[in-house]
Amino acid sequence: MTSPDPATIGVLSTAIAGMTTAISILWKHVSNNFIALNEKLDRSEQRLIDCESDRLAIWKKLAEQVGKEVDELKGEVK
After folding, report:
1. Would you state the pLDDT for residue 1?
2. Is the dihedral of CA 47, 52, 55, 61 positive or negative?
3. Where are the domains of the chain?
4. How far is CA 78 from CA 35, 61, 73, in A?
5. Structural contact between residues 60 and 73, judged by C-beta atoms closer than 8 angstroms
6. What is the pLDDT of residues 24-67, one digit of tens each?
7. CA-to-CA distance for 16 and 73, rounded, in angstroms?
8. Is residue 68 packed enough to be buried (19+ CB in 10 Å), middle (13-18) or exposed (0-12)?
9. DSSP secondary structure string, 2-54?
10. Residue 68 has what DSSP assignment?
11. Do the beta carbons of residue 50 and residue 56 sit within 8 Å?
């Protein structure tokens, strides 16, 4: 059996190191995007809760002004 060519081993080692670096950079980028996406989702969920409570408060105020229940008023508006 012949001994491996040092140039070939050097090229393969360099290629493996380069691919490892590229994969690490891409993994970090994907992880950062995932974290940012989760933060936006959390903010969106909170805004939805705030919006729903504001919408219900508006319906209650309208129903109070008309003198009806919220469900009755919603039925008439549709």
Report:
1. 59
2. negative
3. 6-77
4. 41, 18, 9
5. no
6. 999 999 999 999 999 999 999 999 999 999 999 998 998 889 88
7. 69
8. middle
9. PPPPHHHHHHHHHHHHHHHHHHHHHHHHHHHHHHHHHHHHHHHHHHHHHHHHH
10. S
11. no
What distance in Å separates the CA atoms of residue 64 and residue 57, rounded to the nearest whole number? 10
Alpha-carbon separation of residue 65 from 53, 62, 77 (angstroms): 18, 5, 15
Tokens coding 64: 């109070």
The whole-angstrom separation of Cα 75 and Cα 69 is 10
What average pLDDT does range 12-26 have in this prediction? 97
Residue 17 — pLDDT band, cuts 50, 70, 90? very high
Q: How many CB atoms lie within 10 A of CB 70?
A: 14
Q: What's residue 30's pLDDT?
A: 98
